[in-house]
Design a protein that fits this description.
Residues 36-49, 57-77 have a biased composition (Basic and acidic residues). Residues 1-77 are annotated as: Disordered. This protein is an all-alpha fold. It has helices spanning 17-20, 35-47, 59-66. The N and C termini lie far apart (76 Å). The mean pLDDT is 74.
């Protein structure tokens, strides 16, 4: 085994600008949305259809399989 296990950074004098001084993701950063925006978005989501326990796509089939033969579901009444 070598005395330098794993990956190690080069000494500071041989690092490139990206490694040494440049900020990460230079030129790609965007301002974060305001707190009001987040609060409004949250309220909109709550108002428009988030139920506490939505019905799954297979719930009706599972109910039919679990019911006794000849027994009808009460949902349609």
């Amino acid at each position: 085994m070598s005395s330098r296990e794993g990956r190690q950074s080069p000494p500071p004098e041989s690092q490139s600008g990206r490694q040494l001084n440049d900020p990460p993701a230079e030129g790609k950063a965007q301002a974060a949305p305001s707190k009001d925006f987040s609060k409004n978005k949250s309220e909109q989501t709550k108002e428009h259809g988030l139920s506490s326990n939505p019905e799954g796509p297979l719930d009706k089939q599972a109910e039919l399989k679990a019911s006794k033969p000849g027994e009808r579901s009460m949902d349609g009444l």
